[in-house]
Amino acid sequence: MITISALGTSEFAFPVVKTLLRELGVGPGDAHEPAVARGLRILFPLDGTLASSVRGAATSLTDAATTDSQIRFFQHHRALRSFVGTARWVADVHGPISVRVVDGATLADSDRAFLDAAVRSAAWRVAIEFDSDTTAVVPGDDGDQLRVSALLGQSTTAACDDLVRAAFEFVNAGDAWSAVAIGSRLMQVEKSPRVWNLMALGNAMLDRTLDAEFYYRRWADDGSALDRVRALYGLSMLYARHHPVGLRSMPESGRLLDEAYSVLGTLDTATRNDQAVRFDEVFNRNGHALVLFREGRVDEAIELLEWGITELASTDEKIAMHRSVLVYNLAQCHVRRGDLAAAIATYDRLLEVDPHMPEYHLEYARCLCAADDLDGAIAQCRIALDIDDTLATGWSLLGVYLGRQGRHGEAAAAHRGAHTNTPDSPGPQLDATYAWLRHGDVAAAAEVLSSMAPPADHKQRDRWALLHAEVLVREGRDSDALAVIDDALRVHPGSPALLGNRVALAGRG
Predict the structure, then answer these.
(1) How far apart are CA 373 and CA 344, in angstroms?
(2) pTM confidence score
């Protein structure tokens, strides 16, 4: 067991995790496989060799994007998937990982998130204690931190320029914690649109959407016309996608997009014809297409998206590569219209452009399933999982499609894969139980149920009780099955599913 103190003055993310890796002899130079490189990059964002390795590998356009062409940013769930992959790789290479963290009251949020993912999905053993220990290893600055710390000690224009570039490298790699820390220090010497931009993106990535809104509005108010266009687009996406559900508003999202579009209309012809500005215009209308889609005006959304795809195709590849986002949205529109042939053709077109984005393969799988092509859907799920096997959704969809083919034993194994990657969710375990029952393996179903507590959610608890009752009935224990349902009814007395099954089970007597 390695004992590490969470104390320290570092403003940067992952001090405990980086210290543990250093004690194990792990560094950015160990990233010999693309998946490992992608996982380690969030921990070592300023390592140029590692960044080049990630961008140059067979990877999605999102992962290959540089800081000046990035349009998709690591949301919290993507960072957690990265942690799971890295933690599993470390355990595979170095054996069981056991770490004791002392001075735990000061544990950084980034470390807590990584260690939580490592415990739940990679079998790390982590003890967090609030006492001190003089024998503990104390985190120190790594190369990235030393470079940025040196810049933070200066207040020159050149130092601020370098800090902004470094902060956006952290953003690009997915380390929003460090990016926000750098931005908070930068604000002490520079209050500018680029700093508001950094703080808006970093806070949005951390799901701190109210803080992000504050900085988007500062960016919009303090910057140029183009700053306002870009800030209002980011703000509109908070209202469309990222704010807590109670704060989301498609009308407000649409209003912000239209305001930004009106600003674009005030620009002179030369500025508006610049490739970067054309890109802003296309993505503004892409946002408007989302509003139309949500309003059910799908044909209008399709018209806008096809215009945008044509516009991006006439720019250089640095901008045009982002047409994949619009092509994906176009495929979603065809699915909504029920035109599965057009949707399938559009997904084929999308995967020619960006074949290494696992989420695209999963959406294609859903489309193929709707078209009754289960073999194709299963194949797309397997491709997605070959790219990233931490995708719980991929395992769940694979299990569903295998089950529809009557391959219930394989389906149970797939649902087990989903549970491994979302251990706090009871859904995959219940799916596996159902699959084992369909497979005829009552003992395996009973084993899964015995490993889990009754879920807190009423719907999931009802399902747990009904599956438990079915196991008992198949074992010839009808009275025990009835008792399980009665216990569940005491928790959720109005459940139609429980009441109906109780009547049916009582009638068997």
Answers:
(1) 11
(2) 0.86
